[in-house]
Protein: Alpha-glucosidase
Organism: Bacillus salipaludis
Amino acid sequence: MTKWWKQSVFYEIYMPSFKDGNGDGIGDFAGISSKLDYLKDLGVNGLWLTPFYPSPKVDNGYDIADYYEIDSDYGTMADFEVFIKEAHQRGIRVIADLVLNHTSSAHPWFQESKSSKDHPKRDWYLWRNEPNNWESFFGGSAWEYDETTGQYYYHAFAKEQVDLNWTNPEVKKAMFDVMKFWLEKEVDGFRLDVINFLKVNDSYQDNPYVGEEQTHLYDKDQEGILTTIEEIAAFVHQYPDKFLVGEVGSEDLEILKRYSGLESLDVVFNFNIGSVETFDSERIFRGLVATEEAYREDQIPTLFFSSHDMSRFISRFGGDLDRAKLVAALMLTAKGVPFIYFGDEIGMRDWVTDDINKMKDVQGLMGYKLALESGKTSEEALRVANEKSRDKSRTPMQWDESEFVGFSDVPPWITVPDDALEVNVADQLDDPDSMLSFYKSLLGLRGEHASLQVGDYEFLRYEDGMISFGRTDGIEKVIVLLNFSDVVRVVDGLGENLEFLLSTKRNDLELGEGITVFENEALIIKEVLSR
Ligand code: GLC
């Protein structure tokens, strides 16, 4: 039987920003539960929740201080249980973000570890007498001096996110217990945060530099990591029907492809496609082809273009609505498991600030600090901070106009779109031409056509700015024509028995020889194979 996640479309919920249920201005489980009908109606059948465990939130919850509770900002365990039950009743599965690589420095494990060199938990973290040159991914040294014992501890991210020592079997056991706990709470799987960082090279050699950039040669993707990940996968998969998606922090397909498969993670995020910085249809196409060529039969790609860690794709790709629809069409019809980022379905834009005091993201704040230290002016530092800050895509879901916090603080180098205010659910719900309606149509189409869920490519082409592909399950073939160019195209030879399914530019189309695809049109048709 086809695994459920192969037929699913996931939706990422950034916990504090999706829906506030108790009026304190912070998203929570009660809020999410109240929007489950919206999500069902949208047509998604999987949710990925960013961390919801108690945390000082230096890195918004990716610094976990207690793996067995719900952060009070998000509600109670009872709220969580109601939410899971209600989601499951609607056929929506839920995966929890789990940070296995590091804990908050406030976690009792670390407090014990740092208390003395002889503490039994000393070895749960990575302590050294001297730092090496490894840099934190948020900037600055990855080593922090701790006065209590006069040693340095390792943190790949913020100094409040302390890396665990996964070569210690007690650490592994503690984390397996955590997974068991949440699996028994009926989560349907996990999104495993920075999972390729679990091990560092025990030679602790300095990382090399290419120009000013450090190459992270010894602090990620180390030998032995695949075995550890296979153990995690085997543990989780003892429970029937559980799903694992790994965040493998790399855009290199050669690295990404090591981490998924039958014995390993079910899928990993394909940053090789998803994190293209500016819009380039040919580059996206090349990413699809390269993935198709590199992956074995038991490996399935993921498709996403936004997340809580990056700029929203609509802003990144220039703000054009037609283009955004084309990208959405690609994401929901190409081969792979799609992950929609909350708010993209209504076309929410990036946010930037002209006031550093309003910035929350540790990565932006660190960028600001380092820029000032390197002699930049505060204006230049703010620009760096905005570039690095992930607050961009973390603003509250715009359910209606009142929730628009958007662009009041926009610095002069950002253009505010005219229709920014109209970007909200209330306005779009009943508008057949809205982004929201388009997403719904796409999700509906995907739900109705097995070939869009599990079909192989029959062809995958690129010509003059148009990506086209056919996907088939042997019974029917769905043909997707994505004309990213400003020129009308005519396509021949697509087969017989063609039927119109969906377009961004028209409601119907007579299909014969020579199909006209308008500029910037997404056109989806099907060929019935067995008649
Ligand atoms: C992942 C998360 C990111 C976080 C980092 C450290 O990349 O997606 O938000 O800052 O891990 O935990």
Observations:
- Residues 108-154 form a domain with the Oligo-1,6-glucosidase; domain 2 fold (CATH 3.90.400.10).
- Residues 408-414 have pLDDT under 50 and may be disordered.
- The first helix runs from residue 29 to 34.
